[in-house]
Specification:
- There is one protein chain.
- By secondary structure, this protein is mainly α.
- It has one domain.
- The protein is built from five helices and no strands.
- α1 packs antiparallel against α2 and α1 packs across α4.
- The radius of gyration is 16 Å and the shape is elongated.
Length: about 90
């Protein structure tokens, strides 16, 4: 049974996806070249990221993500927000 339309995740705008991907890649490059959580540039980029992200991310999230997920999927996890459906029926959920 296909997922009901109202339960589909909302679309992420292409521009937002590109800008968040650029931030993630820049942070990854900075971390891979030796920058740490004390770096003002790293902290500024994380603050910029957290403006758009659904939950707050920290230095360790950017340091570790590429070992278990692609950059594209990492960005998607930052932008998708779970929504509570008060009237969700068993039939829709199964």
């Amino acid at each position: 049974m296909p997922l009901p339309v109202r339960l589909n995740p909302s679309e992420i705008h292409h521009d937002k996806m590109q800008s968040m991907t650029a931030i993630a890649e820049e942070l990854t490059n900075l971390i891979d070249t030796g920058s740490d959580e004390i770096s003002s540039k790293v902290n500024a980029l994380i603050e910029k990221w957290n403006i758009f992200a659904v939950t707050k991310f920290e230095f360790s999230d950017f340091r570790d993500y590429h070992s278990w997920i692609s950059t594209e999927n990492f960005v998607k996890t930052a932008l998708y927000q779970a929504k509570y459906q008060a009237d969700l029926s068993f039939h829709e959920a199964k």
